Each structure stands twice: as C-alpha cells, then as structure tokens.
Known about the structure:
Layout: E1 6-9, E2 16-19, E3 56-59, E4 69-75, E5 90-92, E6 95-97, E7 103-109, H1 121-138, E8 146-153, E9 165-171, H2 176-192, H3 196-207, E10 211-214, E11 218-221, E12 232-236, H4 248-269, E13 274-279, E14 295-300, H5 307-312, E15 315-317, H6 321-329
Parallel strand pairs: 2-15
Antiparallel strand pairs: 1-2, 3-4, 4-7, 5-6, 7-9, 8-9, 8-13, 10-11, 11-12, 12-14, 13-14
Helix pairs in contact: 1-4
Amino acid sequence: MESISELRRDIVSGAWVVIATGRGKRPHDFLKQGRQGFKQSKLTCPFERPESPPLLSYDNDGRTTENNWWVQVVPNKYPAFGKGICAVFKAAGPYEWAEGVGFHELVISRDHARPFGLMTDREAELVLRAYQARYLTLKDDSCVEYVSIFHNHGRLAGATIVHPHSQIIAIPVVPPDIARSLRGSADYTQKHGSCVHCVILKYETKEKVRIVYENDRFAVVAPYASRTAFEMRIYPKRHGAYFEIITDTDRLLLANALRTSLAKLANGLKNPDFNFFIHTAPTGESHQFDHYHWHIEIMPKTAIWAGFEIGTGIEISTIAPEAAAEFLRDVVAK
C-alpha cells in the first residue's frame, strides 16, 4: 500500500517537513487558487513619484541617473529599523531589549504593472545590481551584522502596495533562520569535509528530477524537503558564501534564473503570491563562513498554516517536489 505522506529532513537545517501527497493536490489543482484580487491605481501609486530623493538610480542602460529611471532605491517612509545606538542591550526585569537600529530601503522598478517575472533579463539584472550596490554600501556600517534582501508579491505574501518593489533591511543581529542555516552548513562541513549545498547541487544536477531550470552558472531546484508546494531555490554552481561579490556575468545569469523561475510560477499557477529572499553569509571580513553557499529561496503562498503546522513547527507540502519540478519544467517562461 502506497504511503499517504513522507517525513523528509532538510540536511542543512535539520528541520522535518511532511510531503502529504495523499491530501490530493496535483500540480493543476493549484491553478484553481490563482491570485487574490490585488489592484491599485497607477494614478495614486506612491511609487510612481517617490517623495524621497533616491539613494541610487539606474536608467535602462544601467547609467546612474535620476531621470528616466528603470530602478531606484529610496529610504522606506515607514521603516522597521532606523537610527539609534546599536548593540546596546538593556534589561527590563527578567527581559532584555535593544533599539531597532539599522536601515530600511525600498528597491522600486519603474513599470507599475510588470512584475519581476515579466521583466527582460537585462531589466532584472539592473534590479539585482541595485541590490548588490546597496548591500556593499550598508555592510560596512559598524551597526550592521546582516543585510536582508527580499521581495513580497501579493497580499498573502505581505505586500501592501501592488507596484513591484523589493526591500533591503540592514540590522545589528544575525536573524534566527540565517543562524540555523549557518549552523547546519558548518556542522555538515565539519562532519563530512564538504559544503552541504555543493553536495546537494552535485546530486540534483545529476539526477535531474528536482531541477526546474539551469544555465551555465545557476541551478533552480525544488528542494527535496520542500516546506511548501512549489518552493524553489536558486544556487550558484560555483561555491561562494557572499552574494555581494558576484561578477557582472554571474549577475546577468542570476537575473535569467530568477526571472525564468518567477515567470514559470506565474504562468503555471496563475500568478500566485510569493516571497523570495537572498540567504547570504553575515557581513564582515571574517572567513568563518567560507563553508556557506549563498542562494535565493522562492516561497509561493500555496497553503495556510493551520493547527498542526503552528503547534509543531512541521510544515506540510501537498505536492511532492519531484512532481512540482516536472510541472514547472514544462511551463513556458515568457
């Protein structure tokens, strides 16, 4: 008798996930969900004419300019982190707290109605160039320990403005999820003498069953222990701990891999809400994170956490990643 689900363990984090194919969803079942209604007028969009002077701005040819811009970076008008005294932890009875010191910026692309997956590779590369440029600026601040770069698409993913934009938040601590990923990577390297993500890449590019897309420098994988249906991760094929040191050639090929992945997701599943984010080593000059392998994670909003997931921390994916990868491979990425 065929099992209705599998427990799969992520070899980096050690976390368990459930692949519950017996719950009945096939790839095409997700088409019925589509996107939640999320429309905003271009006339009233605050990102059409940002109020703050840009911190960085590129035109379509990649030239620095404030006119005819394709992508620009501005301070977030409602930041989650701001000025203050960093790394000073204070007591409040049995508790400990510190000021939310850091930087919070928005990376805005020009076209109000054209999301990342519908950009050209060149346009997407300019967005990634803005990510990299701001990362290189923020990482050297004495208060910054980690720079988080992420993109929310749709209400279910946390976006409150429909105009395509990403966010950069630089903070004085290493986030828990990053810390767990770093520990998992370090533990594997210490035990086996090799990078865990390099091992994953070697196996996946040989087996091909969970490969969604690849080019000369990057591979898009549906993770073996996918936490949600149609999760994807984009890995550089060459080992490196730090996103910010990618070359111009790598950046263009990364843009191709990311844009293609998001186009396949949009075309295959009727434009679902999603988040993507970059996992990279913390800032600083130390080589203690050389074991790490930076990557991008894409998390579609194909399910809602219920009692089991919240109560146990074990996530349930209702489609096997092998089936998700096979479905997405066949989707045309226009």
